[in-house]
């Protein structure tokens, strides 16, 4: 439940705003693009223009949430993004908990005098925001955005979401829960059900997200499962390492490895799984767990990251050939210290 004062403050912030910027996170996923597009739709319906900015490209399967290609990708359009940040009098961060998580553009944003709002479901929200709407119990930021709007509409005569915005929020709820498998609570289904009743085409979203894979991605997935994944039963741990050579071999595109990390967790007896992806000068870390195993603690202690108890990420700087052993070592240490 969001306190009434927060909804009132949110309403007064958006009502007084002339130039709004909505920020999404690095490696935008369905919850990121969904919450950006849902909030964008709501603001637009109420006559409030907003610019959506993400640090880097989002995967192609989410393009249906940005049909006019109006989301600004900082890496591609730095000038445009920076000038939007300069002019903004209101900034809303969605689905991440600190400006430090959005790299260069975050530095510019945090220096701005604009009013800053956080709407997020990650642990440990940064304390510097003027308004923080943070709830780690919700399935996704999209669920939280829906609740904010729902509560706001009980208090004020604002225009509701349109179908495009509702479709965006449904998409984020669906993807962040791994198709309604993880982190769902009764309210998640209540909201998903309302969104369907309002006309969201569940089958179409399913098709966009899980039915539009390239042949290369399917073959990469097969390769990762068959030849690359390692399982250590004594540690109840599995790992996949996607190095540059493998990316090249399978014509890797942003988003192609989406969901891979969950596959390792489907093995009986495994309660922690990792995917490491070699980037230009670092390794991207993706961690998932079941039950009491906290990958948030693991990510904080060993992988320069964080996230949620059962889904976290981070970055490490080491040769790709060493990462699997480093990870198994980290799991070993974690199991001995809890
Ligand atoms: P994913 O594995 O899907 O990339 O990330 C899983 C979760 O971990 C997401 O909720 C994401 O926000 C969080 N996460 C990913 N990378 C980082 C990171 O570098 N630092 C922190 N603090 N969280 C991260
Ligand atoms: Mn999320």
Protein described:
The chain is of the alpha/beta class and 338 residues long. The chain is built from 13 helices and twelve strands. A hairpin with a 3-residue loop joins strand 11 and strand 12. It is globular, with a radius of gyration of 20 Å. The site of guanosine-5'-monophosphate has 15 residues, from strand 11 and strand 12.
Mean pLDDT: 96
Largest sheet: 6 strands, parallel
Oligomeric status of the shown chains? single chain
Structural class computed from helices and strand pairing: alpha/beta
Strand percentage: 15-25%
User: How are strands sequenced across the largest beta sheet?
Assistant: 3-2-1-4-5-6
- Helicity, as a percent range: 40-55%
The tally of strands reads 12
Number of helices: 13
Secondary-structure element pattern, one letter each: HEHEEHEHEEHHHHHEEHHEEHEEH
End-to-end Cα distance, whole Å, is 32 Å
| C-alpha geometry | globular
Give the low-pLDDT segments.
Answer: none
> Which radius of gyration do the C-alpha atoms yield?
20 Å
The ligands bound in this entry are: guanosine-5'-monophosphate, manganese (II) ion
Brief sketch in words of this structure:
By secondary structure, this protein is an alpha/beta fold.
Task: Please render the helix and strand layout as text.
Elements: H1 4-16, E1 20-23, H2 30-45, E2 50-54, E3 72-73, H3 78-87, E4 90-94, H4 103-111, E5 115-120, E6 131-134, H5 141-155, H6 163-176, H7 186-197, H8 202-210, H9 215-228, E7 230-232, E8 237-242, H10 244-249, H11 260-263, E9 272-278, E10 283-289, H12 295-302, E11 306-307, E12 311-316, H13 323-337
Parallel strand pairs: 1-2, 1-4, 2-3, 4-5, 5-6, 8-9
Antiparallel strand pairs: 7-8, 9-10, 10-12, 11-12
Helix pairs in contact: 1-5, 2-5, 2-6, 5-6, 6-7, 6-8
The structure holds guanosine-5'-monophosphate and manganese (II) ion (MN).
Manganese (II) ion binds at residues 31, 95, 121, 140-141, 176.
């Amino acid at each position: 439940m969001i306190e009434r004062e927060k909804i009132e403050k949110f309403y007064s912030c958006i009502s007084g705003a002339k130039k709004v910027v909505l920020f999404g996170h690095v490696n935008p996923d369905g919850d990121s693009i969904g919450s950006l597009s849902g909030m964008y739709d709501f603001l637009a319906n109420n006559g409030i223009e907003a610019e959506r900015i993400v640090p880097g490209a989002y995967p192609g399967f989410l393009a249906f949430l940005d049909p006019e290609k109006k989301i600004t990708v900082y890496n591609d359009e730095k000038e445009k993004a920076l000038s939007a940040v300069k002019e903004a009098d209101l900034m809303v961060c969605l689905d991440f908990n600190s400006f430090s998580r959005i790299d260069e553009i975050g530095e510019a944003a945090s220096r701005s005098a604009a009013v800053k709002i956080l709407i997020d479901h990650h642990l440990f929200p940064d304390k510097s925001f003027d308004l923080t709407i943070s709830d780690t119990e919700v399935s996704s930021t999209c669920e939280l955005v829906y609740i904010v709007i729902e509560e706001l509409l009980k208090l004020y005569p604002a225009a509701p979401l349109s179908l495009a915005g509702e479709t965006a929020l449904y998409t984020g709820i669906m993807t962040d829960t791994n198709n309604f498998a993880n982190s769902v609570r009764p309210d998640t289904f209540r909201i998903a059900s309302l969104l369907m009743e309002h006309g969201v085409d569940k089958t179409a979203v399913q098709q966009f997200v899980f039915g539009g894979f390239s042949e290369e991605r399917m073959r990469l997935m097969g390769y990762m499962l068959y030849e690359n994944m390692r399982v250590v039963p004594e540690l109840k741990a599995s790992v996949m390492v996607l190095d540059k050579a493998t990316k090249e071999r399978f014509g890797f595109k942003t988003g192609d490895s989406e969901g891979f990390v969950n596959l390792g967790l489907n093995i009986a007896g495994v309660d922690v799984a990792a995917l490491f992806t070699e980037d230009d000068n670092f390794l991207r870390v993706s961690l998932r767990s079941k039950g009491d195993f906290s990958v948030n603690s693991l990510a904080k202690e060993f992988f320069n990251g964080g996230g949620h108890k059962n889904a976290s990420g981070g970055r490490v700087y080491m040769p790709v050939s060493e990462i699997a052993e480093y990870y198994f070592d980290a799991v070993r240490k974690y199991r001995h210290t809890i």
